[in-house]
Amino acid sequence: MMMTTLKKGITILGNGDIATPKGFKAGGLHAGIRKKKLDLAWLYSEVPAVAAGVYTLNSFQAAPLKVTKESIAVEGKIQALIVNSGVANACTGEQGDKDAYKMRDVMAEKFNVEKHHVAVASTGVIGELLPMDKIEAGIKQMDKQTQTSDMFETAILTTDTKEKRAAVQIEIEGKTVTIAGAAKGSGMINPNMATMLSFITTDATIEKEALDVSLKAITNQSFNMITVDGDTSTNDMVLVLANGKQQHTPLTTTHADYPLFEEALTYVCQTLAKEIARDGEGATKLIEVHVTGTAHDESAQKIGKAIISSNLVKTAIHGADANWGRIITAVGYSGEAIDPNQVSVKLGKITVVNHGVPVAFSEEEAKQYLEQVDVSIDVNVGDGPGEAYGWGCDLSYEYVRINASYRT
Known about the structure:
By secondary structure, this protein is α+β, with helices and mostly antiparallel strands. It has two domains: 6-278, L-amino peptidase D-ALA esterase/amidase, CATH 3.60.70; 286-404, ArgJ beta chain, C-terminal domain (Ubiquitin-like (UB roll)). It is built from eleven helices and 16 strands. The strands form two sheets. Strands 1, 2, 3, 4, 5, 6, 7, 8, 9 and 10 form a ten-stranded mixed β-sheet that branches. A six-stranded mixed β-sheet has the order 14-13-12-15-11-16. Helix 7 (297-309) packs across helix 9 (325-332). Keywords: Acyltransferase, Amino-acid biosynthesis, Arginine biosynthesis, Autocatalytic cleavage, Cytoplasm, Multifunctional enzyme, Transferase.
């Protein structure tokens, strides 16, 4: 297993996946929901795992979210997860609710777990009913001995072009703790969740309250700081499962190793978030925005979101056009109080605005920089302690083609 060691005791597992933490298994198969692609995924823990989730802010929350929330509410634990792609089971009324509960019940029977220990997720076309005969048959085919986690990663995808994974290890009380995750998301992506599913596993022992606190805070620094197209979906979910198979003292917010756990979980979430942004529908470039100098982090987050959500910024980056006016325009309409005379902007290392005044720069050099697949925009608005990172992608002709014929 390839490994790279980061500072502060975090080791990246180059080949780690969602089933790397002790006690987890995962897989996927083709149930026939989609024509050819894998479309039904499962995740299983040997023991019920402490669970924390965050969900879309869209008022039309899909049936699977309702079921998953209810499952977690019983005792705060999940042991099995069932995910289908191809059909979102959103805006499907009473029948959609019944189908989501049926998925949970059949999964519980197959894996011999309590119904309230099963989480359900769906992604795909909104407004269509699930083909429950195919899903039930697919669940009955699942075999936790032969299927693999790469099949899980593939089965949850829709318009994504690649699988998304991340894994790290840390040491807690002499025990090697692993945190790993898989995600899907490519279009209908906007800060405050998106058409995005992200599932994270860990063999750490942690109290639910501490896991809830961590996930909510980290989501605001990762999944809530990405955008592809400004649309917030009906099915978004981030679910973290901690099964405690590495039996150290339970982590609380006051535990000495809690900050290390949070940092490692942050790395996994931000890596998955960036991969979602990088794989945006039709995208050719990942855009990273770094905002500094605000009064507090929340202000920097709002400014960053305004920049990465701007279609004018996104199209300029796609065309390798150093049109910095679009960036400061987004800063200006972010709703945050700023002094225009304090704003400075860099494209990579190229300064284009300094304290509100344009700076002469080489258009050719800037064009060459913006033609790279990774583009960074640094915006400083003052000398305050607040800062934030955000990630998005360029907006291309291909995005229009994909979404003009999404259902055909």
